[in-house]
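User: Hi! Is it possible to get a structure for several chains at once, not just one? Here's what I have:
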Amino acid sequence: MGEILERILADAVEEKEEKKYDVLIIGGGIAGEESALDLAEMGFKVLLVEKEPSIGGHMFLLSKVFPTLDCASCISTPRMAAVAHHPNITLMTYSEVKEIEKRGEGDFRVRILKKPRFVEESLCTGCAQCESACPVIVPKEYDFGLRGRKAAYIPFDTAVPKIAVIDIDHCVFCGQCEMVCPVGAINFLQKPKIIKVKVGAIIVATGYKLFPIGRKKEYMYGKLANVITSMQMDRVLAPTRPYNSVLRPLDGKEPMNIAFVLCSGSRDRTVGNPLCSQVCCMYSIKQAQLLMGALPLADITIYYMDIRAFGKGFEEFYQQAKDMGVIFIKGRIAKIEPTENGDIVVHYEDIENGGKLRKAVHDLVVLSVGLLPNPEIAKVFKNVKLELDEYGWIKQKDENISPVETSIPGVFTAGCIIGPKDIPDTVVEAAAAAAHVAAYLNEVRRGGE
Amino acid sequence: MGTRSPKRKKLTVHILRDKLGLKPSKELIEMLKKQNEIKSKIFKAIKQKAKTVPEIAKETGLDTTTIFWYLMTFYRHGLIEEVGKTDEGYFKYKLKR
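Assistant: Yes, the chains can be modeled jointly so their relative placement is included. Here is the combined structure:
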């Protein structure tokens, strides 16, 4: 958050009225959406709070899902729309839960900060004329910086809700957006609000953080344009991609020799993350298969420590990649260096051939980055403690028999907030959390008998 | 059409700016000036003839990464179009009329 927005948020106005909902769900990714829809279908009134300007989380940014290769946004976009239109779900985007107080079983008091978009939500039609008029270009977060966005912008084409937002910290106060808006929706006098709510139960579904791969200095991320992350590659392969084709950021050339470096920031004590991220092997194999389709003449090499193909259909998916011609080399990358023409030299230990040190040249390197915990949400609980495990993931009450219960009765989890996992497992947990909430609320209403 | 005159009514952006004494930082103004220069150079280079990123770099003196980043941003906003591809795997881009 920049200085100007911080200054504006300091003057948030508290609403007098306290609103009531059965359940608060924090986080509008696939986990939060699925829990919200399940509970709403059961008849519970749900408040879904998302800190970003649109719901969707990480899933809608992906190209396809493994191992079925179904289109990720084709699955997630209808779910996002269903959440937005369900009569039992109230959606608050661009909002942050700031404080939670537990006053008793089934009684949580919550304070939520609704940040100003500087755009009237009831008026904006998502026409993007403000975006076209705005003169300022900054890196686009949803494309992980692969291209730019304007300071006045629609988050992305399939955003829910599709409402513009003004990045006030990059605004030059020229007024162009306000002058061209055909419905007069731009309102820089919009105030931040503190909204008070009372809820009976809470689901925490705030997901994970991507490993900041700049910490692994020998991989040269941020220094060499042709070294990108796996999330950037997923964006390049997605239907809503930032480029007009699969191209390398250095000069817009089609890459013909692409390397994947697995366990970039996972299973690595030197960068403080000894855990396996569980999804990197399979999403890299997915991307390799998609690249073979997009660039049939390209060579694709995956450097790995172990291939962990443990889920349903995963081993077959791995074998399929081999059959398609993807080259798998067992060996950890020691160093990455540039060549004069922008290609990349990868130094690796060839474990299956006597452990010899070898070099290979590629024209694009994809770092398969791991997943890290996102423990900030624990800080908003004021009079009760949401316990974390030794790594920072939310601690489960019992991993075997109560995996979605937390140290606080009435607070449940869904998705990657308790540890890395793939989309099907996330959806299963989201349904489990919804069922636990229903049971908890029914028990509270019966007087805890 | 659809444009409100700033003379008729003071814009809310200017009310906020005056009320809080806001002004864009020097860095932001410098960035905007630089962006306008880059935009102008790229548009001039591809106004008449479609060119690849290395060709634009040769003509403008800008580095290829910067050119490609801006081209993709302009592509998203419908300002440029791709016109064929070279045997080396570079697309050619041209300013839309």
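The domain at 29-95 of chain B is CATH 1.10.10.10 (Arc Repressor Mutant, subunit A). The first strand of chain B starts at residue 80 and ends at 85.

User: Great, thank you!
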